[in-house]
User: Fold these one by one.
Assistant:
Number 1:
Amino acid sequence: MLRYLAGILCLCLTVGTVGATDHKELVVYSGRSKGLVHPIIKQFEKETGITVKVRYGNTAQLAVALLEEGEKSPADLFWAQDAGALGAVSKQGLFQALPESVLSNVPEGFRNGEGTWIATSGRARVLAYAPERVAAEELPNSVFDLTDAKWKGRVGWAPQNASFQAFVTAMRVLEGEEKTGKWLRDMKANGAKRYPKNTPIIRGLASGEIDLGLPNHYYLMRFKKSDSGFPVEQTFFGTGDAGNLVNVAGIGILRSSSHADEVSSFVEYLLSPKVQQFFISEVFEYPVIDAVIPSEKLLPPDELLKLRPDINLEKLDDLEGTLKLLREADIL
Amino acid sequence: MIYSQTRPFPPWYFLVPGIAVGAGVLLPLVYLIVRAFGAEVAELIQIVFRARTVHLLGNTLLLVVGVVGTGILLAAPLAWITARTDLKGKRIFTLLGVLPLAIPGYVMAYALLGLSGPYGTFASLFGPSFPNLQGYWGALIALSFYTFPYFFLNLRTTLLGLDPAIEESAYSLGSGAREVFFRAILPQLRPALYAGGLLVGLHVLGDFGVVSLMRYETFSFALYTQYTAAYDRIYAAWLALMLLTLTGSLLYLEGRLLRGTKFHRTGTGVSHQASPISLGIWRIPAYVYLCVLTLACVVAPIVTISFWTLKGVDGSYMQDFLQALSGSLLVSTPAAFITAAFAVPLAYLGVRYSSSICRTLERGAYIGYATPPLAFALALIFFFRGIPGVYQTIWILIYAYTIHFLAEAIGPVRSALYQASPRLEEAARSLGYRPFKAFLKATFPLLRSGVTVSIAFVFLATMKELPLTFLLSPAGYETLAVNVWSYTTEAMFAEGARYALAIVLCSALFVGLLLMRGVKKTYSYAEAPT
């Protein structure tokens, strides 16, 4: 036993020494999953010769870790799944201003006012439904119609999911605290079923637990990719409805980074037509620049822009208020 | 007579590891208390001290009781059959009985969810569907299905080391089979049951993956919401401290229940191995039980995962796969051995020395286990951030694994220690061995099967660990579990499946090697005297 231990310790020592970090690389904390962004990172490494070390994790957990690390963070970039997390890190002053050359790439709605973070792709909130149990013409025109007795116990949502909370924040901005609070309470009273995140909502629709759901737009497309007969469909609410919020995934450069040139080229790379095209065709997300070929499965960007509620994404960083409202409604 | 009376103070080589662990456990506590002081009273009442928290606590306790009960029911017959009967194939069933531990909780939940319901795998393979698993029962089933091996292995270790003389005496005194079980065997199984119960209980308290997928709200739900929805570290710290208080009371309870227990042989003579019981016609129900258990807890989830791979495998990223595989093995293997090495002195302190300091040190390991992993990782970031050569290296990851999973390793060693008589060590010392050598020569060989199980537990747990790995591993360092999570969370089950299967396969191989060695050893001991 002791001999084994000694052997393993030696092995471990070797690995530890070999694995010690070389400080010339770029370190990215990515709340975007490996499944979505790995090919992009590999391609970037190949084209530029810069090594990128990625820490994959949950967006919010990485944000909390960044807050805890503060100025001593080894990270150069934080690539997050939603605007809220970027806002939380930005508020603590942990991001540096992005270079103008990067900011000028995207329209104003896709970056924050201080220019500390920038969107890399768009993700829309949609209404998913089970066509076997709900006919297309029955579908509600507004997210507010979901409190109708007709939908009692038939709707699924994910109140602890960041995208859902961003949507509630948008609703507060658009419709006011009172109306939003009432909607939440009415939804709860109407027996809305709670799911931990988007994927289980889609599964719940397929398995017959629920008939309507409020997920992000791209999950269903991934299910359909491997199973074209998957018994779930999705659509948008009426024009400008809060339920059609278009949130973003985005990236910011940390103040602790000392690789100015490399980080800019990484961010610019993400905004290049090639990578944006990848987001459309492989990840099924909306592009943030114009120079791309539209996909059949996604709405053309200008139609999406018409459908979405008119809201400044920066206003989505008041998460505190949303959580308070969710708590008051006894949902969180 | 018992040398703890003549040597009330433990020797340094037991005390130093104990204190090192104690300090390791204190770090997260200090961190949580530092953070908790940042709170404001009004917010605290709004977020932490409200009726909903009590409701969630109630839900959590209900689930703990349910999972512990179900776990014992699933594990006890399996342990008895594999340890005490002559059933053919019991080695295979021993291995199969451990395998559920290799399945990450959220994968088990996904598998059960994917299996059940009208659009599930079961329905598409066989036609009829069974109802969707969800809520309390869904969580109960998923959790019991992969945590029952904690009971199984703890019980099996104890049953293998049980001195049959006690049962024989009971029979010779005219007791019936039932009385023998309740009065002679069951009391001796208590340390194993408590150790398993504590592990499973603490696991349920801290679980988030399964309960959230099954849509059953427990206390950790509130905790995770606070960290991940509010980016808040202050009120989350209060919730974590509340959880630790609950753990503290469970520990106190277990300590009280075990106080003053001794199960080693005190009379003269040599203990012998119980001869295997022939099952006769009862073999058939035994096989039925074993097959149903294996089907439900091992075959069904693995088939479901394999089913995902069928939906679209491509050979790309083989290099990534191998990198993740070696990444997992290179932290899990050393962590398993180091943790077991720490577990021996700690269990020894807890069992052989009655002073409250020794007991507290041993209990400390459970506090480390019960600290929510996310808070644990943040604490290590808080204390070690920016220190070159330490922060975000594989060392800090192994350190975190060791402190966090030590509790899993202590139970089996402790159960074995209760059966090892201190007199053997005294005899060795009277023959002129120095104390440490006496321990190695006389006691350690008796702990071998316990230590083996400890290594297996920690290996299995670290192979599927997520929150600590996410935040503490070197940037760019990947493990199998991180990949499983990365893909399944984006509904890319086909891509994630091979990583999940690799976890199960590696775990099976590793545990298989360990256990087969252990089984051979016990056989050779049993056969030696003839």
Number 2:
Amino acid sequence: MSTINHQWERFTFQKKLARFAVYLVTVAAFLASIRTVDVIPEFFYDAPNQISDMFSRMWPLDTAFYPITVHAALMETLHIATLGTLVTLIFAVPLALLNARNVVANPVVNWISRFFLVSSRSVNSLVWALLFVAVFGPGVIAGVLAIAFRSVGFIGKLLAEAIEEINMGTIEALRATGASWASVLIKGYWPQVKPAFFSIVLFRWDINVRESAVLGLVGAGGIGVVLNDAMNLFEWQKVSMVLFSIFAVVILAEILVVQIRKRMI
Amino acid sequence: MAVVKDYPNPFERSPANTIGVIVIAAYLIYAAIDMDLSLARFLEGLGHGSALLDRMFPPNFTRWELLLDGLIESMQIAIISSVVGIFMSLFIGLFAARNMMPAWVSSPTRVIIALCRSFHPVIIAILFVKAVGFGALAGLLTLIVASIGFIAKLFAEAIEEISFKQVEAIRATGASFTSIVLFAVLPQVFSRFIGFSMYQLDSNLRNSTMVGIVGAGGLGGTLFSAFQRFDYDFVTAILLTIIAIILLGEFLSGKVREIFQ
């Protein structure tokens, strides 16, 4: 006599067990962290007072400060972001090509370039900035290189994924005509990844504008230096002016990127 | 005599390309002059670079207790802020979804999310350090804000993309709003939501090693003080630890994503 199990279940026992394990680990990790984290409760209860006090000191904005220092620093920040994004391409494009399995069909090469991309992404741009400040001294060069080295991993990874998704038919057709390696790259791969390339670069530029605003905190140039100075001198009205101008630039950059994307891609 | 037809070159260089290259080159020169970048300065730096690399290797793990303390604090910050931030994002994301909520609820919620997103975590961390003092609490609050800015936005977008048929079917049975959310909306977005959450845990782990640079606790603080004391071999040890923990985090989140597919 055969027995049919009429009890329908969406997940197998193993799947249920795995899910349950994830929930359990999450709750256990959360509780363990809450119990052991080093937080002084008085500081937490006092936070609303402190925050409202800080904002009351910040108001009104010190608008006279803008033309003196903020404007030049803001332009410097934009330069750092743009130059950093351009410099990145020198490293990111070759690494992306080496990482794409349909360009270089060699697992060892793919793996090596992936290693570079991952380590570039794992180190935060602020940490890259610390390193480059130690090498080149405080200033714009450190900022540009920090932005460039952090962006390599991001652009390289996304570009490699875009290259791997292209239609290989055109590539094969070009190869069949006896086209050289460079021609295949420029006339076969490039037209297909062009929209993805521009949208990735614009996206990263938008992120870089945000990131370059804080690099100055470790001495790598830009508006962050002004922010740091104002904060160390407790000039809160200047701080709020700087924060407001960063906010305005970030919003403008985002609007610009959205508009360009609508027109071009 | 055979007539050789003169075909136009199909691969003609477009004028837009040429203009683009010229504009970029002009910009590079302008920016370099504007910011006093020079090759001499760059080459001088390269010399310092090799000296720095000499001092960075081999990495020095002798003060591993300090390293471990910072690492544990970073992980505590990342876990707590991810759980709390994601939990809050569940509600905020739902309130921001335009197909579930009237405009007078969703529009203000969207403004709040945009505000959370528009500042870099480091700037938020500075403000919180000034407000609640040095230590893990400032890092926690910072990353909660950052998580809301990211997860709530993605979650709202995921909810806006759901199929409305199931919502209507469940609504037709006379179900309450809570039941509609639990049985019509959540099942459709759950696996994507797990994906976002794992991504956010990853990025909180990365950022928790960074917010310490401005005094908000975690491994970043250890890193920054090692930099300031010129202990570059210890800096390498910390950086290697950070890379290792992030790779481990990516591996684990990949596993979790597989489980919840």
